Amino acid sequence: MMAPWVETYRLRGGDIIMRSLCHVTKGAKSDSNSAAIEELKKQIEQIAQDLNLLKEQEALQTVCLKGIKIPGKCFLADTTKKSFHASNDDCTAKGGTLSSPLSGDENDQLYNYVQQTVGPEGHIWLGTGSPIRFKNWESEITHHPDGGRGQNCAILSSTANGKWFDEDCRGEKASVCQFNIV
């Protein structure tokens, strides 16, 4: 027979925790029983939050093992060529974002990773964000970004030593998702 009062928590990944917090006897609940029940509810909620955090950390470690880890983040390549928006949605669904180098060193590490995973002729979508903190536009030969009406998305090019170009967002390129490590 189940206790008269049962609390159920659903966690990410489909796990369910059921806890019988207290057996309530017939009659009015005392203030001490109510306080104890509330305290147990808070403890269970904290356990559920801690478990979800551990699951996220485990998933992030898996990503970092499959990809490459740099200070503060991990990169994971997807060599399937897709539009910018499809690539961005895929990264978001995995819990990350499209790669966005914040310094010359990060750009160099991303460029090296792209050469190893996507290939020496590879191009990947960049999630530059707004405002862009670091820029590595190819500006000497082609003067990018050139403000073209149809080219509103950024790519990193392996063939141009990690320089950035603006491209049509509907084109299909590989991508690298980044996952921030806290």
UniProtKB/TrEMBL annotation:
Domain (C-type lectin): residue spans on this chain: 70-178
GO molecular function: carbohydrate binding
Pfam families registered for this protein in UniProt: Lectin_C
GO BP: any one term: bone mineralization
InterPro entries xrefs: C-type_lectin-like, C-type_lectin-like/link_sf, C-type_lectin_CS, CLec_Tetranectin-domain, CTDL_fold
Extent of the signal sequence: none
Keywords: Disulfide bond, Lectin
GO CC annotations on file: extracellular space
Protein name in UniProt: C-type lectin domain family 3 member B
Organism: Sinocyclocheilus grahami (Dianchi golden-line fish)
